[in-house]
Amino acid sequence: MLRLLGLESMWQLIPSKVFWQKPQDPFRFLKDRIQSRLAEGDVPGKNDYMTLICRQGDEKGLSSAEIQAAFIDLFMANSETVATALAAIIFHLVRAPDIKHLTSEIRQKFPKESDITVNQVAVLPLLNAVINETLRLCPVAPIGLPRTVPKPGTSVCGYWLPMGCVQRTSPSRADNNAS
After folding, report:
1. Which H or E element spans position 121?
2. Which run of H or of E encompasses 6?
3. pLDDT tens digits, residue range 78-126?
């Protein structure tokens, strides 16, 4: 079946543990993780959304249920962009003639799934190049962030933009362009 869909090269990227794992309820998982993190409270040196909520939670009067609802909303909002990015990455990898170098980089760095951490993934040059190039080719945000041209107007790449003009630029393209 995978061969018919042109996905046989992708099979090698899926750890067998993930394939055979029993799916779990994502909301139960989220609620458990949120409760666990709330129980930790304000952890010195940890800089995440939960730290801000723990610091200001009493002032704002947020209940545990409200915090859970807010984080589930954040998770759901991010899941669509992550799913879109992953679909684009898979689309381009399937069409690539050879992904052995990428597979090799990942497998050499992470012999076991438990070795994978955000900090370790961040230093993989080929994987990050694939992600960045995919985001450049297929921005996940459906519309760019609006920016209003200030007085008296400005020139961008040889084009005059008058004052008050609203310009939209893809966030991923703006972040990856030094000029």
Report:
1. helix 118-121
2. none
3. 667 778 888 888 888 888 877 888 888 999 998 888 888 888 888 999 9
Q: What is the pTM of this model?
A: 0.49
The CA distance from 127 to 103, in Å, is 9
Pull the structure tokens for residue 2.
């995978």
Give just the sign of the alpha carbon dihedral 106, 10, 172, 146.
negative
Unique residue bearing structure tokens 């990428």: 102
CB atoms within 10 A of CB 67: 20
To the nearest 10°, report the CA torsion of 103, 109, 111, 116: -100
CA distance 157 to 44: 45
* Bond into 15 cis (ω within 30): no
Tokens of 10: 């992708």
**Angle (nearest 5°) at CA 119 between 37 and 141:** 80
Q: Which amino acid is at 43?
A: V
The CA R_g of the chain, rounded to the nearest whole Å, is 21
